[in-house]
Amino acid sequence: MRIGVFVCHCGSNIAGTVDVERVAREALKLPGVVFSDTNKYTCSAPGQESVCSAIKENALDRVVIASCSPRMHEATFRKMIAEKTDLNPYMLEIANIREQCSWVHKDREQGTRKACDLVAMAVAKVSCDRELFTTNLPVERRALVIGGGIAGIQAALDIADAGFPVTLVERESSIGGKMVMLDKTFPTMDCSACICTPKMSEAAENPNIEIKSLTEVESVSGYIGSFDVTLREKAKYVDYDVCTGCGLCETKCPTKKIPSEFNQGLSTRTAIYKPFPQAVPSKPTIDAEHCKKLQSGKCGVCEKVCPTGAIRYDDVDRVTTQRYGAIVVASGYELIDWTGLYGEYGAGRYPDVITGLQFERIVNASGPTEGHILRPSDRTEPKTTVIVKCVGSRDPNKGVSYCSRACCMYAAKHAHQYLDKVPDGTCYVFYMDVRCAGKGYDEFYMRTLQDGAIYVRGRVSKIYPEGDGLVCMGEDTLSGEIVRVKADMVVLETAMVPSRGSDVLASKLNVQRGPEGFFTEAHPKLRPVETNTAGVYLAGVAQGPKDIPDTVAQAGAVASKVIGLFARGQIESNPMLSKVDVSRCSGCRACVDVCPYGALGLVQANLRENSRKVTRTVCQVNEGLCQGCGACSVACRSGALDLLGFSDEGIMQEVEMLCQ
Amino acid sequence: MSVTSDAVAAEARSRAEGAASPEGGAGSPWQPKILAFCCNWCTYAGADLAGLNRMNYPADIRLLRVPCSGRVNPQHVLRALQDGCDGVLVCGCHPGDCHYVSGNYYAKRRMMVFKRLLEYSGLRPGRFQVRWISGSEAGKFRDTVVSVTEQISQMGPMASDAPSLEALAGADALLEAARGAGDAR
Lengths: 660, 185
Ligand SMILES: Cc1cc2nc3c(=O)[nH]c(=O)nc-3n(C[C@H](O)[C@H](O)[C@H](O)COP(=O)(O)OP(=O)(O)OC[C@H]3O[C@@H](n4cnc5c(N)ncnc54)[C@H](O)[C@@H]3O)c2cc1C
Prior knowledge:
The structure holds two protein chains of two kinds.
Chain A: E1 3-8, H1 20-27, E2 33-39, H2 45-57, E3 62-67, H3 70-84, E4 92-96, H4 98-102, H5 108-128, E5 136-138, E6 143-146, H6 150-161, E7 166-169, E8 184-185, E9 190-191, H7 192-205, E10 209-212, E11 215-223, E12 226-233, H8 248-252, E13 258-259, E14 268-269, E15 272-273, E16 285-286, H9 292-296, H10 301-305, E17 318-324, E18 326-329, E19 333-335, E20 353-355, H11 356-363, E21 384-391, H12 407-421, E22 426-431, H13 441-451, E23 454-457, E24 460-466, E25 469-476, E26 481-487, E27 489-494, E28 496-498, H14 502-509, E29 536-538, H15 548-568, E30 570-572, E31 578-580, H16 590-594, E32 600-609, E33 612-621, H17 631-635, E34 641-643, H18 648-659
Parallel strand pairs in A: 1-2, 1-3, 3-4, 6-7, 6-18, 7-10, 18-29, 20-27, 21-22, 21-27, 22-23
Antiparallel strand pairs in A: 5-30, 8-9, 11-12, 12-17, 13-14, 15-16, 19-28, 24-25, 25-26, 31-34, 32-33
Chain B: H1 6-20, E1 34-39, H2 43-52, E2 61-66, H3 74-83, E3 87-92, H4 103-120, E4 128-132, H5 138-155, H6 162-169, H7 171-177
Parallel strand pairs in B: 1-2, 1-3, 3-4
The structure holds flavin-adenine dinucleotide.
The site of flavin-adenine dinucleotide has 40 residues of chain A, from helix 6, strand 19, helix 11, helix 12 and helix 15.
């Protein structure tokens, strides 16, 4: 055995706390180690070059690199070994002496001792490593995008434009997400509908995009390159192949008093409806819960008036399964339900305390007030408006601890829009901080101040009715005084929280979520759109609060990852899978029951035992399904199953080495 | 069972000091050897994040990376305790968050049965612990290392802990008898 140990300085990142030269010297005393060296930056081109030439010159057959986390550069070094040396890339182990040593320990002596131990453990493990070989698996060049907000639309368009088919799944009856509800968008104040609806119709018209509205993911199985996804498309009660979207049904539907979701409850809609005029798909659906015909069998007006006979009261959910090579999660966000949290703001009892999204609908020309700023209670123009920021955000006692990122800017936008439409109005903004980092953002905020918005630093502690208005009470933390502002309308800029059902979606896709519930990226800096499950990507607020420019940029980044995967057309399989030694297997099936992927099965095998031919039931590993978790190897009572790359012997040797 | 009462702790400490300098003279003070089996996707990532955030914690812990906490065999833990570790941790993703769907459930059940067996036969609780730490819980990782290191330090070296040693002597047989325990679905 000829093991080489390479210890990285990582500039001063490691060498600052760990005596790397000593670690390299100590390594030479370990069994099997014939060579050791240090490098300023092992991952750099000259670093890699020197490792590769050392491997060749010293005829090394196993390599330990002591550097940053294997989660960071194990793949880099494997690739290096595969491409530039004759060694098998799996004859490599990484000792993590940066993230788990030099960065967390200050004492040089202790850090160095620990680094020596970690190297020794890696040497012990590498001694047990075996050559492993990958195979190439085909990639189904078709993408699934979950969520039809601007993130999902943009990702779908970019992937489709590269020539690959995309299914865009949206659980509401139209794509568009929150953006299509907005009036204008900061900082340029483009009309949101003018930039969002063209993208929606572009998606509808793109031959590579199939939009499935009222659809959710039922189940997912498989792995990168070949996910089998089952979708449930809810009954729409309208045959979209026949419907022309003329809208006659909507005008005749007798059930008219249902609060409109699109207008945030500020107007009403019918039971057969399109959520808004520019909806995509541009066809109505029946809301079964409110439809008289579907509830009690009496009515049937829409069927009678429909000129093309498109109404189908007997429609049912459609469940389909399709294979996809990649999945994009763009499930966006909801606004926190402030009514349950803020009793001191009236918990929803005062109609003139509204959310930012309701304000967007009020100020919108096609909204419930046709763009006139009128407060909900009596439809009069509010002369004093108070905007409250960070409602639920940055307040772990009430809501969430994080900053929702877009609110400082859209609060400034709302103040600007209000003062623009009500020139004799007064606008107060209660704030904790003003965070306007972004191109043109601070300038935008400054303009709002010039417009005359009055910023008061402090949280509003109470809102109570007085006369026909509301009083907002809070402390101005700059002057230390209690302020009471008599307002006609109050706008709460509430926290963004993960979409409802994100937890279920996460477990179906087997991706992780952070403590706040947003989906977790594989690496916060270097792999911001991938997840830890290969082939599943994140775009938009699903990954964390952000505004539209960032959402669109992220969606583009996701698309480039997906297009890259599809362009390659195949992926290397993971060879670190379970392996069965049939001579020891007794066919007890303990492993079969433990495997979460159904990768283990029992087969009849013809074996030679004690120079006799026998036919026995033994276990077999399906390498396409095995994910390499190793749960079976522990369940195996006869020690017949082992996990390649993390073998029982390898782990034991690591343990023994540490114990010495 | 209260092992952290002051008297016991003081005794452990004096024993620890004795063990560190067998000749009774000055030597480097005894430091515990703690092995942590950490799953690649959650706790190992959480430990990396603690590094990225430059959090500080005692240097007595050594992480052994496994793909999943379900990969950890009680035999691995037993060997570590028998052969010289003063404490062992098994860490994985939070229940419900396993990267491999259910590996941590198996780990939880196997390790709980195993821990009870060891403690029943005398191992001091605290020598072997099971914790769930996610990839974003760098702070929890640090706090766990701090508290576990403190506990093990107070208990002193395994070598001078007679009840624990006794527990390990018979444990191989117990383990053989309990194989597969906890795996039923
Ligand atoms: C009041 C307000 C004003 C704002 N103003 C601005 C502004 O002026 N400028 C700006 O840049 N940003 C603004 N923002 C932020 C902006 O809304 C977001 O950045 C943007 O909408 C994020 O898009 P998204 O696609 O990630 O999420 P969303 O718009 O939430 O889209 C997610 C979509 O996924 C669907 N979905 C969710 N779960 C599932 C599932 N399981 N299956 C299928 N479909 C699912 C949802 O129905 C939704 O259609 C504002 C936000 C608010 C609240």
